[in-house]
Amino acid sequence: xxxxSRRNFLKSSASAxxxxxxxxxxGLGRARAAETITAVEWGGDYFESIKKIAAKQSFVNINWQLxxxxxxxxxxxxxxxWPHPGIDLLTGWDVTWxxxxxxxxxxxxxxxxxxxxxxxxxxxxxxxxxxxxxxxxRTLSSTLWFYREDTTPFPITKxxxxxxxxxxxxxxxxxxxxxxxxxxxxxxxxxxGDEKNMEPAxxxxxxxxxxxxxxxxxxxxxxxxxxxxSGETSISFQGNGGGHDLVKxxxxxYLNKMDPKATGFVTFFYQEGWCVLxxxxxDAAFKFANFAISPESDGEFNRLIGAIPANVKAELSEDAxxxxxxxxxxxxxxxxxxxxxxxxxxxxxxxxxxxxIAPLL
Length: 361
Known about the structure:
This protein is of the alpha/beta class. It has helices spanning 45-54, 75-81, 94-103, 182-190, 199-211, 221-230, 244-249, 260-263, 282-292, 295-305, 327-333, 339-343, 346-357, and strands spanning 35-41, 60-66, 89-93, 136-148, 171-174, 214-218, 235-239, 252-254, 267-276, 308-309, 334-335. Mean pLDDT is 87; it is low at 1-31.
């Protein structure tokens, strides 16, 4: 089980509706709450699950807004609206925290404001240049390749299988701005490169695009889910939260705990959580975040989304156990990328995708 090395994961998006579109989901909070905050959450299971957690408290009323696109998509909007972003509590992950720390947007997290932070591994805490903790972790997640065994014509054992003609139209491939392009980083690692030497991945990607095996290019996690559940495609790459329903409803195989050198299937880990932005209702935001990462709340939330709780006192669900790595498995099968470096490559990789890969599809 994940102990001290339960660390580092990813996710990019689980998106759905409304931030920046004028669509407010106000009214979903509790009418009698003493204080009100605006919180930004991911869509899908994340939103439905956190609403259930929030319904168990009455001291904070929450106006929910949802991320659109990847979690990083909201950062330019915050910058444009700063110092009045209109957001008290923001969900994000490793890459998001690097930007927020450098911009100085986060209200420092202390044990007095968030007592339950004491049960979160210190390795998960991100600090700004002044040494202040800026994040409140709630989830450990993994991002990995997976496939539906009932709609895939043969067992997938290595990334080279993606070029097999029997997989015509079977692959749902996320664009580079989703999942921080870890899908291509896995190819780079398999072919002798890494996130800072992506040429092997681009070479393989061109072969894959020409093969006709990519049946859907996904612009969001919702598109991945819809494509896989409808049977349009069978293979994709996503955070474990997105694959939760697939595992419950279909014969789905996680391509993890396999020798990365022989197969190319490496698992990327990251952590997700909350950040309280300066200038808003910070006290109420901290109160809710502290409630949400308590052992009971954090355990239930992560059981609902199929992930691993960040709180070491929270109970691990049966669904999450196949995704949990012990220390030895972490050393053998997991890869922790250079998140700050990845966060700076998104635009360049997307531009290269449009110029070199999209014309081949």
